[in-house]
């Protein structure tokens, strides 16, 4: 039976991925800060699919908390087949001269340093058990940079570089590294970006049918269940009305 660790499983893409992996019968290690949400997701998947789930609530920005959480895994949970590095966020949408440095730190500490902290703990476990698969959730913002998004885009450019570097460094250990770069996905992402302003968040998706968390989870599932000799290095996924980070067709 395969074991998957999914960061940021309390909502959006991470929660949807947990549900899909649960349906496949995977054992799941789910993480996120909101422990009540995490427990609710755990209970729902356990009830529906009768799979084993460990819920680990910690802030991925805190290196010692990440280290403690992974070091404290029971031995029977230390063989991790798939790590989905999904936890992340955008905070604010401002020109660089007006941006809030607290927002910048949240994005860099979560999207870049948090991803590194957990990977540093899980990769040796994968090596010890003979291999594995790491799926990084990047973004179209990892290859393009848009106005007001310099720091979020920089953080996802870092995920893009890390995905390439990890793939090289871990290849000899039998660890595959894939990156998924979504466009617009209607999750809690925009509400978080706009600090809870739901009206502003909803406007982002007006006039298009955005992707759902489950649309991306479907891609994670596909990548994770391909024959072992195939790796999807990198894949960009967006709604049919979105061409790239700059151009979205919302009709007349
Ligand atoms: P959501 O806001 O719905 O989910 C984000 C998840 O990340 C939550 O489970 C949240 O859990 C977790 N998270 C955030 N900060 C921390 C932290 N400090 N410690 C632990 N967990 C944390 O958004 P999405 O599902 O859309 O986002 C998932 C990923 O997809 C992100 O990396 C995002 O950048 C990326 N992405 C999203 C796109 C979109 O349009 N939605 C497009 C491209 C990429 P909790 O709050 O409980 O800690
Ligand atoms: C999130 C998508 O367009 O806000 O990564 O960069 S976008």
UniProtKB/TrEMBL annotation:
Enzyme Commission (EC) number: 1.1.1.-
Which keywords has UniProt assigned to this entry? Oxidoreductase
Q: Which SUPFAM superfamilies match?
A: NAD(P)-binding Rossmann-fold domains
Entry-linked PROSITE patterns: ADH_SHORT
Q: Which InterPro entries match?
A: NAD(P)-bd_dom_sf (IPR036291), Sc_DH/Rdtase_CS (IPR020904), SDR_fam (IPR002347)
What GO molecular function terms would the record report?
Answer: oxidoreductase activity, acting on the CH-OH group of donors, NAD or NADP as acceptor
Q: Which family does it belong to?
A: Belongs to the short-chain dehydrogenases/reductases (SDR) family.
Name of the featured protein: NADP-dependent 3-hydroxy acid dehydrogenase YdfG
Give the encoding gene's name: ydfG
